[in-house]
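Q: Sequence in, structure out?
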Amino acid sequence: MTIAPSSSSIPLIDHAIPVFRPYSGEEEIQAVAEVLRSGWWGQGPKTVEFEQRFSAFVGAKYAVSLNSATAALHLALTVAGVEGGEVITTPMTFVSTNHAVLYNHATPVFADVQADTLNLDPEQVERKITPRTRAIVVVHYGGRPADIDRLTEIARAHNLILVEDAAHAAGSSYHGRPVGSISPLTCFSFHPVKNLATGDGGMITLDNPEWDARLRRLRWVGINKDTWVRSRDKDSAGYAWEYDVDEAGYKYHTNDIMSAIALVQLQRLPQTNARRREIAALYQAGLSDLGWLELPPLVPEDCVSAQHNYVVRCANRDKLADWLREHRVATGMHYTPNHLHAMYKPYVTEPLPVVEREWLRLLTLPLYPALTDGDVQYIIDVIRAYHA
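A: Exactly. Output:
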């Protein structure tokens, strides 16, 4: 650590600390090199292997790999049949969650969140149900599982489809069940800063064979046999030519370069998620006595969080962010509630007091597997030196 001019007695660290950082090693490099040398770069055997391993990892019958979680959400809501209806959703999320509703020509209906977890409040969801409601989309904020049991009860009572946005929750579990094996459709993200990162990518897990078949067509512009399948249709060299298209799909498929990275990342996901939880525990221990700083609530013993992020709350969020920046520590804010964005204001029918109060206090601290204990302690010391 190098001593440099600072606005406090804490010496400035000799490197900048980002909020998130991708985590990889030589294994990912070797995996990509293998694909490059194979001559098959598109969607092929590595993608098939990743889908099989991921479905086994979460305990689902099927896993459909895509080029983003946005694509996953779009197609999940397509097979859920929401077009022309309403989808009850959270405002506390990245905009992709709710863009996917609009892509399906449906109406987003925003429900408020729980003050402690920032997850969708089931009681507020139930209030929003109308004869036009087709589905509920729930986000596991920060990787902490939402109240899936109660939301499932509500969905079944009203004949609705529950879709989980698990972009933060690869490796989370709820009452002993892996996220991805519980609801009819679960969508994951493999964006560069996610827990399982491939450069980009997404996945839908499900148990419905008809939906699985349709999703595979929709991700490849509606074609009923993708290139890899057609390459194996005949023993002779070259591709079988025959395929059919019975509905317009999208170019949402992934490729074997990303899938090769994903296979390595999936293998080490339990360890990297465990490291994330270790870092969160260090923050909890080092900051818990600060009366002006509110820490995330503890996760119930029968649940496991993937711990995608670590979000604190305080009255002077922006000033604390400036203080940390002066000390070479980056922070983030997740998220501006979607219903406050200009394009979503026409869909707002009533105030959402909890989310509108809480988002003004949120600050995301650095959290990624390569963050050292020394860096975490430095961040804690800088926060403790701040005078609220």
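The first helix runs from residue 26 to 38.
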